[in-house]
Specification:
Layout: H1 2-12, H2 16-47, H3 64-72, H4 78-96, H5 99-104, H6 110-144, E1 149-152, E2 156-159, H7 161-193, H8 196-213, H9 221-226, H10 245-272
Antiparallel strand pairs: 1-2
Length: about 280
């Protein structure tokens, strides 16, 4: 198993698509930062226009902490989409090249092979997220400086620079669980559909559907707590005035359970399917 995982990681970091994914992350960051530089001040003025009649704001609210928060909001769609397209290619590419058949002609079990794909997908996702987190904090503070963070979630909240830093860092770590979930789902979709284009389309539809269903509300809180599309926004709770740690932990645990479920489905299907 260790050799399989090392081989998978070696193949991942020898592929051009890996570096395309890294480039896409930087392009997304640059787009957010450039947009904030040219339009962020106007947005804040409109957003806080009515409040300026009651409160006096001091300091620069268009700062690095706000930019980092804007990057975090890419966790809804852009970052998962990049990950799902790239990660699914780890398997669909080998179906296309018939590498899967060649590998399984060796003394390699189908179970170990597909598990190594899932592990490699998680490691790759962690690598991309690590780059995203480090670069976002460094570039945001370098070009926009530090300052208070203003967010609007069930009311307007302000956090000083130090508290904002820790809340943003915790939010990134919690949001990473959602990224791991989407990475695992993308491998499972690759197992089910095999062909790259079909897998990408289904992955995009899955992501869009999950994002839209996040707005669904059921009368039962128990059902809401188990409905997996509503488990992908846990990082947002970090910006409530009083962080509901219990709710975050519950949603994170259930999401980890769904991640394991999707992996189990992919492993079972791959084991039962005739590869030849």
């Amino acid at each position: 198993m260790r050799n399989l995982i090392r081989t998978e990681l070696f193949k991942i970091f020898r592929q051009r698509k890996t570096y395309y994914a890294i480039a896409a992350v930087f392009v997304l960051e640059a787009f957010i930062m450039v947009s904030a530089f040219f339009q962020g001040r106007e947005f804040l003025d409109v957003f806080l226009e009515n409040l300026r009649e009651t409160f006096e704001f001091q300091g620069n609210l268009l700062n690095g902490n706000l930019i980092i928060y804007l990057v975090l909001n890419s966790f809804w769609f852009h970052i998962p989409l990049i990950l799902m397209i790239v990660v699914s290619g780890f398997l669909t590419g080998e179906y296309k090249d018939r590498t899967v058949e060649a590998i399984l002609l060796q003394p390699v079990s189908k179970r170990n092979y597909i598990i190594s794909k899932y592990i490699a997908a998680v490691v790759f996702t962690a690598f991309i997220l690590g780059i995203l987190i480090v670069s976002t904090f460094l570039l945001s503070y370098l070009f926009f400086g530090r300052g208070d963070l203003v967010v609007f979630l069930e009311g307007l909240s302000f956090y000083n620079g130090t508290e904002a830093f820790y809340r943003l860092l915790i939010a990134f770590l919690i949001g990473s669980l959602t990224m791991f979930f989407y990475a695992v789902v993308s491998i499972t979709l690759a197992v089910l559909f095999q062909e790259a284009t079909v897998t990408w389309i289904v992955a995009a539809l899955f992501l869009i559907g999950t994002t839209l269903m996040l707005r669904f509300e059921f009368e039962s809180a128990w059902v809401n707590g188990l409905f997996f599309p509503k488990l992908t926004d846990s990082w947002q709770y970090v910006f409530f005035s009083e962080i509901p740690y219990g709710k975050i932990i519950n949603k994170s645990v259930v999401l980890i359970g769904y991640t394991g479920l999707f992996a189990w489905i992919g492993i079972r299907v791959f084991q039962k399917r005739d590869i030849s």
